[in-house]
Amino acid sequence: MGNDILLQNVTLIDENGDIVKGLDIGIDRGHITTIGSKLSKTDYGEVLDCSDFIVTPGFVNLHTHSPMNIFKGIAEDVSIDRWFNGEIWPYESKLEPSDVYIGSLLAIAEMIDNGVTSFADHYFYAEEICRAVLESGIRGDIAPTIFGDSNEFSSQLDGATELVQTYNRQHRRLNVRLGPHAPYTCSPESLETIIDRAKELGVGIHIHVSETLDQIISSLDSSGKTPFRVLHEVGGMDVPAIVAHGLYIQEEDMSYLSDDTYMALTPKTYMKLAMGWGTVWHNYRDLPLCIGTDGAASSNSLSPLEQIRYLGLIGKNILGLPQSFTLKELWQIGMRGHEALGFKTGKLKPGYGADLIVWDINMINTLPVYNPLAAIIYSADARNIRHVMVDGKWVKKDGDVNMPLDSIRGEILNRVDNLLKRGKGKAMLYF
Ligand SMILES: [Zn+2]
Fold this sequence. Notes:
Layout: E1 3-13, E2 19-28, E3 31-36, E4 44-49, E5 54-57, E6 59-64, H1 80-92, H2 97-113, E7 116-123, H3 126-136, E8 139-146, H4 153-167, E9 174-176, E10 179-180, H5 188-201, E11 205-209, H6 213-223, H7 227-233, E12 241-245, E13 261-265, H8 267-272, E14 289-291, H9 296-299, H10 304-319, H11 327-340, E15 356-359, H12 372-379, E16 385-390, E17 393-397, E18 400-401, H13 405-422
Parallel strand pairs: 1-4, 1-5, 6-7, 7-8, 8-9, 8-10, 11-12, 12-13, 13-14
Antiparallel strand pairs: 1-2, 2-3, 5-15, 15-16, 16-17, 17-18
Bound molecules: zinc ion.
């Protein structure tokens, strides 16, 4: 006895999409400690026979706004202009910290159900998201949103700095970085101030870039530069950067990306808000593509698997090549988010954090299984996700998310009642 958990007889799909059979995985104090065959059961407190299952690293949701689960379904069938300016930003202006907290808890429960073991968030009242992360068992990389052109710029930057100082290097499951909203809502001067602060603090940034064609056109009109170039010139690629979207990345932008730049694509939102197909498809093998879900107000679900599936289907069609966006390539895009976060997860190898999914693909939606990756990417859903482990602890076991779901359900209905009574306020910004 001494070690925590032994997974026996594992068939593993690794981060590259390669299948390895007949392994035992030993886990202790949050880490994978041993991989071998026929490890001794008596050394472990808990033994799980995985003969009937597939084990993979967990999913990363590299771009979301978890508190927006409180808005799921509130703004449907509207233009992107109306979505931002007429619905979401006016409601957000009256949002309270407790709405953010409960929305985030609901989102985390949904993410765990869908096999997410870590997520990168971008929102205000970020201390409430940090609280939800620590209480729930998931890993979170939280970026407090900063609007460089707003009157609150200094206080938002100072608040974010304080969160970094409070939480970073204190918890294995929580990291805070700075979240400049976007080049179109932050002047180059304010962007530079934020990035300089990120350098001083030793943290990265998380920012929306080149999300729509209009953003490219207006940036070129006003400065003669693409949004990526604006970000590059103020040092945005000198720090670890999560770039949300980059859907309309231009040829010249490729040269601005550094080894520590990661792009989080959220294809369901692009289709739902009819944002066009963008430009990421032809060069997809040369871009650091990862998967996000965006907030539930636009995507209505927080399943990276669903987004990976859309990415593959759109990509094959745009290129007119069913041989493109192969199963392995899609899987690698789904797993790459682990590299973007500082948690040392994503590989089921000794020394890595024990973040993993145990899949049951012997179900009616996935049988027969000629190809396990095809079964997962094109047929599976949350029902097939039997167990989920984060930092060596089960956060979903036997199909049940290990969170107080009844109280979350009750509280969210309460908060939604209040939110609708308060109604819309005045948006601070214009999209
Ligand atoms: Zn977003």
